[in-house]
Amino acid sequence: MTDLIRAKEPFRFCTRLHLSELTGLRATTLGQLLALIKEVPGSCVYHHTHRFLQQHQYLSPEPPNDFAYWVTDIIGEDELGERLASIDTMQYSTIRDLREKIAATIENYLKDNPLAKLQFARSGEEFHFIKSVSFILPTNYAAYDLKEFSEILKKITIDSIYFHIFEARLRFEKPTNDFSFWIENSLGDKELAGSISGFDPYTRTLEDLRETLVRIIEKRISG
């Protein structure tokens, strides 16, 4: 068993309350969708690319984002829908970069397919922009070493795991998820931090993500 290192600073777990709020903005064409994607708050882009993860926490994630779904099923532009669905969210460390990628994908498609601008959504099937409003709350949990960290991971809510893995990184423009950052900077374990930041959390349910994190950490402790 590896000797446990005491952290320079404890990891303090937070959790989140989430609300979805209508903005009143809607698009009926690809041109309107593109224009609004460029100007809506980042919380809108976040909502429409992470809604599946937030609402279907126990199902296997298939994060075709809301933009891809609407473009394919409502506008009927399958090729563009595939391009949008294939955007690897994991590659983008900020909402700004993700927004620019989505906008560029639509913009380039419209340049090559100008007739796509003539496609209109039927009444009642417009794309309605929604923003994600989060309230971040501290919990009573704090970990000073990997064993405490692992034990807390087993019992905190999936909202807490979601916040520290996804939301803290993207919405607050952090270089990596909170867990990896703490492990590297407070425990000095770059190898473990890299293992956690290296796997794709978007391909897992939140419960599977919890189990994977615990397994990796416990293997490190016993190694």
Question: What report would you give on this structure?
Answer:
The chain folds into two domains: 11-16 and 137-222, no CATH class; 17-130, no CATH class. It is elongated. The longest helix is centred in the middle third of the chain and has 18 residues, at 95-112. It is built from ten helices and two strands, in the order E-H-H-H-H-H-E-H-H-H-H-H. It has a two-stranded antiparallel ribbon with strand order 1-2. The chain has 223 residues and is an alpha+beta fold.
Secondary structure layout:
Layout: E1 11-27, H1 30-39, H2 42-55, H3 66-75, H4 78-85, H5 95-112, E2 127-143, H6 146-153, H7 158-171, H8 178-185, H9 190-198, H10 206-222
Antiparallel strand pairs: 1-2
Helix pairs in contact: 1-5, 2-5, 2-7, 3-4, 6-10, 8-9
As a percent range, the share of helical residues equals 40-55%
What is Rg? 20 Å
- The CA-CA distance between the termini, in Å, is 6 Å
Strand order of the largest sheet: 1-2
Strand proportion, as a percent range, falls in 15-25%
Number of helices: 10
Give the structural class: alpha+beta
Whole-number mean pLDDT: 91
How would a textbook summarize the main sheet?
A: 2 strands, antiparallel
Give the oligomeric state: single chain
Annotation, overall tally of beta strands: 2
Kindly give the count of domains: 2
Q: Give the overall silhouette.
A: elongated
Low-confidence segments, ≥5 residues, pLDDT <50? none
Q: Give the helices and strands as they follow along the chain.
A: EHHHHHEHHHHH
